[in-house]
Amino acid sequence: MKHGMERITYDRSIMNKHAFEVGLLEKNRIPGLWVRCDENGYYQIGVEINEEEVLRVADVLEDELIARIQYWSGKIDDIKSQYG
Full-prediction pTM beyond 0.85? Predict the structure, then answer.
């Protein structure tokens, strides 16, 4: 994460929702937050930023997943206002 003068920017990729849905475990249990598992066993957390895209914000192992979901759930509105 980089702190700019006006806003925080995230060093993560913006993905098409259809691409992020591969391996999808849950979406919108927490509105706007998506979680998927990749082929290497990492859990990827994404924030829905518009009707077509998800910003991948974290890649974590299973033992970190719940803590990171809790962390990112508090950032959804800020991210949506920056990217949406």
Answer: no
